[in-house]
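User: Show me a protein chain along with its predicted structure.
Assistant: Here is one chain, sequence first, then structure tokens.
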Amino acid sequence: MNSETKNAETKSAETKSVEIRNTETGNAEADNAEAMKAEAMKAETEQSDYANDSTEVCECCRRKKRSQQEFRILVNRLSRIEGQIRGIKNMVENDAYCIDILVQVAAASSALSSFSKILLTEHIKTCVADDLRNGRYETVDELTDVLQRLMK
């Protein structure tokens, strides 16, 4: 058993004892706060475990475990883009002027293009580089196909 697992179990046991104490005293707010803190610690432990395998690629299911930083950057960008799309939808629903909508569509398209560039850069630095080091040259063909699709 590694030290992270021991720490997580110890924190879990501490949280349970606090929950029991809070239940006995009828302090529902403290109980809820402690439960939320325990869930946050659990999520943090899972993310750190996830980040430790940052460049591991599974060939059979074509998945990549990203570093915590890369994951956060990509998800934050997608969340912003999602908000832009929702804003465009609201503009259409509220009968906004066509040019105003088109300006927002251009901004969302640009944001999505920037997201693609970041993802492609990370793909080349990690997946493609690792595959080339390991003699899997078919990755270059896959990359050129994707680049041709992106440049249309």
